Queue: 4 jobs
Job 1
Amino acid sequence: MKKLFALTLFAFLLNISVFSQEKIYFDENWEKTTQDKMEYYRQTEPKGKLILIKDYYKDGTLQMEGLASDATPQSEVYDGKVTWYTREGKTLSFSTYSKGKQVGPTQSFDAKGRLLEDVTYSKDGSFTGKTFTYKDIENFVYFNSATVYESPEVYKMIIYDDDIKGIRYETSTDKAGNSETKYYGDKGKSIGSYSSTSTNNGVIVEYYYNPMKVSKIEKYKNGSIVESTIFGENGKVLQEEKKNKKDGYKTTYDESGKKIGNLIYKLSSEGEYLTPYEGEDYQLSYNFLQFSTIEVYKNGSRILNKEFNETGKLFSEKTLKDDAVQEIKYYNDNGSLKSSIIYKDGLPYSGTLYETNLEEQYKDGVLIHSKVFSETGKIQSEKKFNAAKNTYESTIYNDKGSILYTYIQSLNEDSSFSAQIVQYINGKPANKSVIKNEIIQSGKIKFKTDYVTKEIERSGKWIILKVYDANGKLVQDSKISAESEQDDTNYSKQTSITEDILLSSNL
């Protein structure tokens, strides 16, 4: 009898030993795999009524350990404290569970061992505690933050530099979603606050980061900005603005503190609001590092507008009279004159005009040459005036610089697109078509939209429309009455051809 009991006990212990040595292998996504492809592996063993789970990195370093009532991969039901570790053996995080539900304290740490989360969960799913983020200049994070939770709905977030009691701002949110932000300057001195429940009055502050400094202070009264101060990174005032019910001013300084401009505000002729009246209005870029525009006013009229590029170089200088443009001068980065254009009756008349991705040349009020460029500077299209034929000859290019379309338009063309088009495929003329008021009159054309490619062909009184999906599969083959497409009341035209469609096509 004793011998039988001993054999039974030995078999039971052997089963436990074998069970504890069982390994499950996982790939990098924690999907089950074979030993030769594994990145992690798991060993389990019974601990009373629970199961102790231990996960390991490929090299045998412990990755996680914790108790569970069910150790099924991807469906574990944890019970108690579960801890995760880095490859170096440091604690990465731990959480506490009760029957698979997160209840109790949880903490997590970053690669440097700094606390990221220190939160306690309740049975109802709510939590209290703190979370943190830290400066990481390499990843473009320029400030620290700490969020203190009284509950998931009631919390305070603090954005700070190095000292959480120093320069900072902190936003408190209540259960109703209302918020109040308090702003602090050097050494934690209070500047003011702004509340979502009292948006008509208060203070809003903006900051530079790395290191944190005040960049702008705005004071609100009855919903309007009554005082604004902008500071340079050196702490000196760049611009100060004050307004009251009757008048106001804006004064601008250079980085050394020298006054360079002053603008006076006066009530509008209707007496409803303040408008620029006399002096120089300096507008700073979004980061306050350079000027974006300077506008000069005299007796309430704008007489000069200067625009600067993203590097702070003067780009254009616009002269105005009675708010109508008279002349625009354009400059190179070295300050030399690039071109100029004269206006008549508010329209370009003679010279070269530059706008975003656009260059236009005018002579005696007629556009004689224009170019459109992509964001990378490659030419997308150009249009030339043929004086002998009184027509425009246009060319559209693809991203590689190859010709897609050429077309001819009458100078006296109305607002609807009409043209004689030649389409090129692989650099050679392929299709010809005539378009009048956006409707094909003869020939065939093919173009690409955002989602499909259309092939449109005129056949007598009919328009043949073929539509191909992104994979080149024919998804529509229709025969449409040309008369119905030319009906101006038809707002669902399928075969309209516009200049914008050709410009956006990239076959």
Note: The mean pLDDT is 91.
Job 2
Amino acid sequence: MTWLKDKLFTEKAVIAMCHLDALPGDPHFDKAGGMEKVIRHAREDFLALQEGGVDAVMFSNEFSLPYLTNVKTETVAAMARVIGEIKPLIEIPYGVNVLWDAKKSLDLAVAVDACFVREIFTGVYGSDFGLWDTNVGETIRHQRYIGAENVKLLFNIVPEAAAYLGERDIVSIAKSTVFNNRPDALCVSGLTAGTETDAAVLKRVKDTVPDTVVFANTGVRLENVREQLSLADGAVVGTTFKKDGIFENHVDKQRVKAFMDEVKKFRKDVNVC
């Protein structure tokens, strides 16, 4: 049994993304609508996810495009306000992801009592956002310094829109990440949000680190969820829950429910509760 049962109350868990609109300071922030519009959309999307039956939710500043690797204070402050406004409605476990800043993700997690974060904690990449460097040693020390020891760390080892600068395959990356950092989970992604995680890559990662939780991090849909969950311990799902399965749209509760009904059938078939 993994920590998923303890924290998310099930194995083969589905973490749904609650994508926040562009925030103050972001290029596409709607100044006329202001924070009230951001909060209203976040509340509507969150309730659609929760009422649709997902196991957990992860709040992220998905529309803070183009992303920063050293996120501004105003972004974290705005995210904290949004989650704080919604918090009285939350009845399921939740996490946060401040794209793409591991320390800021942990800061936000402590501020809003989130139980997990997903981030790029390790590696150096050539990316759409420029040269993308990390310092996992500093980040983990920061986690301890701010009292976030109990926040579960989901390591995304296949960053979207980026490539490892060193010539390393996914197996060696997974193996060394687990050995050096003891992550709570590894996340395996496609190229961009909504792009299917390669099943062969997912299997290789899980076979390499069988005792570590592995999530399919992008592109899990109703049509492939059984295959993906047969290989991974869980899935992070965003785009497929949107109206018509389009990234830019808001959450469609009926799509969520249909997806989670299939997940529950799969769990029953494989004797997972």
Note: Residues 182 and 243 are 37 Å apart (CA to CA).
Job 3
Amino acid sequence: MITLNSIEKVYQTSTIETLALNNINIDIKKGEFVSIMGPSGCGKSTLLNIMGLLDEPTKGEILIDQKHVEQYTDKALALLRNQKIGFIFQSFHLINDLSVLDNVEIPLLYRNSSAQSRRDAAREALEKVGLSNRMKHFPNQLSGGQKQRVAIARAIVGKPDIILADEPTGNLDSAMGNEILNILLQLNAEGCTIVMVTHDESMAKKTHRLIRLFDGTQVY
């Protein structure tokens, strides 16, 4: 489903060159739930952004469903992201001026679908994460756990094959963090492939496989 071959990422300024990722080789199979762990600054989020086609590697190959994406145009990459990948961020990235329902609907605005079908899909996604009673609320009226559930609903509203979650429980207490993990485990049981960056070893152990990074390099 996601294959990374010999991935290298270098950030360069006029005065310094930083090697963020070095010779990363990963194959994520369809239906897997994989965790990525490592100390702060080791390249976890950079790796997730490259998997999600939000960032380009300096060197190496990316394959999605065995198709090379290096030659895709920006428009083709955006379409692939929208149709194939759902993103969940630690800081939620909700728009405070929009209702919960409107926030969840956002990914569908880039598809050629009717307003009614977008609304129906957003309602269905919110019901799936247990927030059907909060559709008309605004993000600043929600708890941290509720905001993250809205973010998950937004990630799944387009029925993506892949979910990339960057520290989805990082801003939550342990009880709410476990609730969020259980939602992700259920989505995975239903067939969604999930890659999750986490600092929580106990949560990582509940996933199928753990990839460790240290200073931008895989630890085997």
Note: Helices lie at 44-51, 74-84, 100-105, 115-128, 144-156, 174-189, 201-204.
Job 4
Amino acid sequence: MKQQKSGSGEFKKEIGLFGGMSVICGIMIGSGIFYLGSYVLQRSGYSLGLALICWLLGGLVSLLGGLCFAELGASDPKAGGQLVYLSKAYHPVLGFMYGFTQWILASSGSIAAIAVAIPTALVDFIPGLTQLHIKLIAIALIVLLTLFNLRGVKGASNLQTFFMVAKLLPIFIIMIGALVLGNQTPDLSPVPASAPDGSPLTAGSVFGMIAFATVASLWAYEGWTNLNAVAEEIKNVKRNLPLAIILGIGGVAIFYALFNYSLMRVIPLDEAKSLIESGSLYLGTTVAERLFGVAGKVIVLIGMLLAMFNCLNGMVLAFSRIYYAMSAEKIFFKKLGTLNKNGVPAASLISQMIISIILVCLRNLDQLTSLVVFCGMLFNCLAVTAVFVYRRKYPDLERPYKVWLYPVSVIVTVILFVGLMINNLMEDPVTALTGLIVPVIGIFFYLYFKKKYGGEEKEHA
């Protein structure tokens, strides 16, 4: 992909190893850490041992996918990441379908959802905070971070690193406090008492529970694909990108398992079951209040706000590079493929801001973003499979990092993704299939832009 420039603007390599880890971990670790463990525990038949296995399995699935992205990113370090791999491995129309879905709904919708979630967390603390206030605050946050990112990737990366460290402090306070002060001795047996429906356990029912609980854990790992989008801005990318992915995903997996274990050091399993069944999913909040009183609730709130703000900045930073890559391939608005004097895709950032603000103003935002879950997994699966295609189409491409245990590891990753897609399709077929409408519509836009700008058939990496 040939880089487009605006004046003297060009990408600046300002993201180091820790900055890269902050991007990937910052997007992954959000407010969900305080409540997603409830879903995993519930789906594991309230077996903490099995739940922890599912947390580690979710991390393994994400890490296997991350290893594939590490090879692709180190060998083809282009802005846009996943879009580039889909375009080169298969056809530019597939890359465009992915990018168009991200631009019009998935990425912009994620930004909008997180921006709305931040002021929503303050409702119990600020009396009189209405839906109008929440939307105005969300819009202000999106505008603020967009303007900050327009000033350059170095500042945005430093901000990401700062809030990454800051948000971990309150979470570590809760986790260490629970490990040290908790008086429970959790049963780590991986065998639940019965299946979720109360029937006797069978090998099939246990396997189904593991799969269902692992899907829940994957919600917490969402975001591991995004570092590749800023590959052109990473220092020593051939070393730092794979390292950031491996250390980031691996560290988060261990952190999630340890955090959820620590909660059970304070809350007896039977009580945790009662809380979850009654709808009290925020076990992290319960533990913090039990350990630190009223101050515990404040610690959780601070942790959630910092985590969501960190996630929001990471999304604004990474997602905008996808639309730049689409334009650079001459299959999208020409202006979005230019860089300002600070070396950032200003027009892409601004267009992303506008769409995100529009989505903030719409109702049923969660329903909109849920439409793209299935096709998101489909695109991720195709990107992982692109490792095979790249090795066949571009055998002479320099590969400073290669996927461990190739090809077995890639095959296992693809099988896992296919299994998860089948599970998602069986659980909610209407939403899954409806979500494919957005990328299909993208085909018509691709044909329009290709005719207008010519497009680029990528035959060489």
Note: The domain at 17-453 is CATH 1.20.1740.10 (Amino acid/polyamine transporter I).
